[in-house]
Amino acid sequence: MNEVAVLEVGRDALLVILKTAGPIMLAGLVIGVIIALFQALTTIQEMTLTFVPKIFVILIAIIVFLPFMMTTVIEFAQQLFERMATLG
């Protein structure tokens, strides 16, 4: 295995990480901005107001995107196993 192959595996791994974590992080970011805007407009500074909706939205996002995430990780694992099989 040469340096190019190692860099390809690393790049593919980073893309899989972005594909799987991206939608959930984006959902958390969007709800965080909405809550911050709501708090700034109403001057309500309750600490639990930030955590409970974020937890709920992230949980819903995980449930919605879990099939996509599993498919992405399984395809990446299969590609890795195929690369390992061609080495030996």
Describe this structure in words.
By secondary structure, the protein is mainly alpha-helical. The chain has two helices and no strands. Helix 1 packs antiparallel against helix 2. The model has no long low-confidence stretch (mean pLDDT 92).
Feature tags:
single chain; 88 residues
Q: In percent, how much strand structure appears in the residues? A: under 5%
**Poorly predicted ranges (pLDDT <50, ≥5 residues)?**
none
What letter string, H or E per element, gives the SSE order? HH
The tally of beta strands, per DSSP, is 0
| Span of the ends, CA to CA | 10 Å
Number of domains: 1
Count up the helices: 2
Report the average pLDDT across residues: 92
Sheet/helix structural class: mainly alpha
Overall geometry: elongated
The portion of residues assigned to helices is over 70%
Radius of gyration from CA coordinates = 19 Å
Question: What is the makeup of the main sheet?
Answer: none
What would a concise description of this structure say?
This protein has 88 residues and is an all-alpha fold. Helix content is 91%, strand content 0%.
